[in-house]
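Z., the sequence and structure:
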Amino acid sequence: MTPGFAPRLGHCPYKYVTANSVTTKSFYTGTQVYERTIGKWRREYETATPKNRTYNSTNFPVIRYADVLLMKAEAENEVNGGPNAAAYKALNEVRRRGYGKAVDVPDADADAPAGMGKQDFLAFLQDERARELAFEGMRKHDLIRWGLYLSKMQSLIADITTNAPSAWRYAANAAKNVTARNLVFPIPNTEITVNHLIIQNPNW
């Protein structure tokens, strides 16, 4: 696997099923949204052989080049009051690579829509970060940074409660426990003890 890159979620619309000692791919149906799992780290994408039975050759990334490009696109959009050519270039390089295209060649299927304003570009980029960086431990911090964490968790509760099969509705429990307290960490008591000018963060 190329360091720092991983196949998109959309490339894994299946799971493996073993029956009578034979393993086959079973493709998800359109109604099995809540049964799908991430395929980003699947061992079939490994290029190193022979494959170790217990460990694999995929290193969990500390920071990926795709993340750097998406940060650049977001910063360009913010400081310029809207997306400029540099913002589009950075975003589209990530998207083209995700589609398996040449990153330096414009592509109608992969490239972001032209002519977006600041808010539309930001919303598009927020969705792109969710797809590109899925299951890499960054989404919560992104949502907090954008001021969206509480509202997104509340909408997640509503979506799961309304649409998920009953066997999967327990997944809403974590979101139900999220409050404004979860937007910041507590200041350690040891710090407050030695410096009486420090005030504890709200709700802690």
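Confidence is low (pLDDT under 50) at residues 1-7. The first strand starts at residue 14 and ends at 19.

Let me know what you think.
H.
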